[in-house]
# Entry
Amino acid sequence: MFLAALHGEYDPDVGEVRPWLYGIATNLVARHRRTETTRWKALSRAAERDWDGHEDPALNRVLDRVDAARFTGPLAGALAALKQRDRDVVLLIALGDLSHAEVASALDIPYGTVASRLNRARKHLRAALGALKEDIDG
# Structure
């Protein structure tokens, strides 16, 4: 943010510095969110592609990865479809390995809000992945 502010064209005649800096921060956060959502959606589309498998034993690891990718795309799509606040909680717990209390502290929200957001996100993710799991099991 500081680099963006240094490269910006602040005009003291327009107003205070503080709103100008908040505007820069807001634009940077919005850009990051758009990039993150685009990345999740791209991952979802890439994993949906059909891959031709081979029966060569040397390619078993590759086939295992491709099989796992069947979940990667739908999971990425389901994560992209979550509200940002719910996705933040899921990713901090699942990837960041943070506790509920640590997530509450990091996001500056009550402990109970972490639990409710996680519960809501899990329901959404289960529903999104449920059809795929039934297809694989069936």
